[in-house]
Structures are given as C-alpha cells and as structure tokens.
Specification:
Number of strands: 0
Radius of gyration: 15 Å
Distance between the termini: 19 Å
Length: about 150
Amino acid sequence: MNRLNWPEVAPAGAKALYGMHHYIMTGTNLPEELIHLIFLRVSQINGCAHCIDIHTRDLLKTMSIDKVALVPVWEEVPHLFPDQYRAALAWAEEVTNVSETHASDEAYAAAAEAFEPKDLVDLTITIAAMNAFNRLGAPFRLPVAAKP
C-alpha cells in the first residue's frame, strides 16, 4: 500500500522537525558518532526501517561493522562501548520506553553522572527528536536505500 509522504504533505511540520535535527547536529557538544548511535538505537526500539537504514549507514562511517551489529545487545558487550556511550544508550532506552520506565530516578542519576547538565538535556532532545521521526517514518513507511 502506498502511504503519504509526510514531509510533502506537511512541509511546515517537516521544517520544524528538521530544525531540531539541525540543532542536534550543529548546536550541541555531543559527538557526532554518539548522536548517530542514539539515533540508531532509538530507531531499532521503535522499528522504523527507514531510520535504521539511514543511521546504520551514518554510524558505519565512524564505527566498525562488528560494533554496529551488536548495538541491539550493547549491554552484553560492555567492552565495545565507552562508559559515556553506554550511559547514553541506557538513557535512550529509558526515555524511549518512558511509558514503561517512567524515567526512573536510578536511570536519571546514571545519565546525570555521565553527562554535564547541558549535554544531558541535549542528549534527551536527541532521543525525543528521533522518537518523533520514528513515529512518522514507521507509520508512513518511508523507503529504505537497502536493495535486495
């Protein structure tokens, strides 16, 4: 079934969301690799094929395929990811699943220990933005670049 191309149908809404993306990529102190890692993990949780495809490709520019392949099970391979990346991944899962986790005090404390206040807010904005993109990409079945 063909679905609507949401950015074409609502260009002002797309511009607003892309503005958040621009802020994340240019207005934060978060490393670009960490941003793409968070974008990928959130997209995996939400099952957005389009975003998984894009952010896997982005992450492969700076991270080995061995590590990228293990992102869904990052907790089982702690030696592959630095402490701050693991804290960011844990916070991304906590925030993405907020209806279940309620952003627990324990998870917040761990994230706050790993990030300066502004960086923690920017990380949370990054997580929120990717959740918003996923909630448009998945329902409207945006295409993937991957070929059979």
